[in-house]
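User: I'll paste a sequence; please echo it back and then give the predicted structure.

Assistant: Echoing your sequence first, then the prediction.
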Amino acid sequence: MINGRLQVLRDEMKKHGIAACIIPSSDPHQSEYLADHWKNREWITGFDGSAGLAVVTLEEAGLWTDSRYFLQAETQLANSTVELHKIFDRHHPSHLDWLMEKVKPGDKVAADGLLFSLNQMERIQKKLESKQIELETNVDLFKVAWKDRPNYPNAKIFEHEIKYAGETRLEKLTKVREALIDKKVNSHLISTLDDVAWLLNLRGSDIECNPVFLAYVIVEKEKAFLFVDESKLSDPIKAALKAAQIEIKNYEDAKAHLSELKESDSIWINKASTSFKLYQELERADVYFGKNICQHLKSQKNEVELKNFKDSMVNDGIALTKAFCWLEKTVAERGVSEYEFSEKLSACRSEMEGYHGVSFYPIVGYNANGAIIHYRPLENNCATIKNEGILLCDSGGQYLNGTTDITRTITFDAPAANIKNAYTRVLQGHIALASIIFPENVSGNMLDVLARKPLWEDQKNYLHGTGHGVGFFLNVHEGPQGIATVNAGNATTIFKEGMVTSNEPGYYEDGEYGIRIENLIVCQKASKEGFLKFETITLFPIDTRLIDKSLLSKTEITWLNEYHKAVFEKLGPLLDQKHQDWLKDKCQSI
């Protein structure tokens, strides 16, 4: 099937005189998760991981992805002629090096300008120009090649009430306008869907897992423009937007609006999130480049958001208690497929107030599948969980009052010494990061080593980041902050009070097992002026059966016991006797 699709695409390339095309995993808004209409890379390669890039020439095809997806990609590409290229340094565009060996001077390479950011396209242009390769950015090859391509999504948009958001859309617009005054520019283009949703206190269902909708916003000093499919808006929402001096325009009219800006019009854009095609429309305007203004504003959650966030963790902890209690009882009687348990997790969460779906596709990896970092069990292609071995489960929910993301690794029998050792090292790294007190102006790349040090002492490591920002009833992966090695972009962001971030060190042995322990942490003021600390807000027990207690210090044991005490105190009274007893057992002191 994939090879047939490649041939159809190549036939279309020949019609346009194109020697190669670069196919990203993105949409016009540089989203991580995509509406089906823009899943070009998935359609042409068969690889459905959330990160990756394909290059197709008239003779060859390659897929580039990072370590989270190596094993998944190998499996999904096995029956096609698409070759896997492993990315070990995300900041080195190895696909361009490969491409340069396949094309010759005078050839034409296609890259849809709507799907690449200005930053990305500048790098591509520079590379191709060095070999006199022509770049074609105005053709969508999939418009013809993909015969049954899905249409744009059209889910209804709804209000995210002030009791959750804590600030009105007008208050948020005022903050953006204050920033524009400081930057001495007239307007700001917002392309990223989570920023649009946050700014306007609106949510949607256009993209699975993310409660966002397709739209652009341009904020000016006196008014703002929302470019969206108006049929998605109810009359009350239209009236509320009008009252806030927000004019509604058609989604497709954003390009025309930008093209009408004059030399006297100044606009602030983010080169990393603005599509190349939109930037091309700003030929006459005075363009200023910098980070998206909303991104930093929304990363620092206000007091109302944080209270809601913590409430959502209680709901999530109750749902998880019911799901894992069910799993433990059921596997003692019969096997449970990974897919069945992923569905059980969603079912338990769906019983909770304000639930709005999963925040990402559940990762339920039994034994060897746990080593596939972003593994997703499918109904007809997954392992059966038995009453032995270990299980890695990474899952999360979208609630009106928060977004959750939690990973637990559990055992069903007496684990081997090497597994207990690795698990305990991961736990030590998790505790070190959770309990650190640090001065202001510290970034994530300065904190990352805390989570890795115990593993490094055993000459172990993991290749993914240690932490990512998390949205408030928005994207589960949210910038600008992150905790990772020095090379990762988000990890250079300074931590600020109110930021919600994941804490998720891990360890993986290919073909054997995977271990990860993840909680969400909130950055807050420490007792001494000028210092910050983290508060862990996720509420669910950490499996103590996997711990080698001899490796833990008294301080680490105290942290774990206090965490479990807090979990039981907050969840226990809300559970029936059966689940309360189960939770009490899991929260026993060690």
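Residues 194 and 517 are 27 Å apart (CA to CA). DSSP finds 19 helices and 30 strands in the chain.
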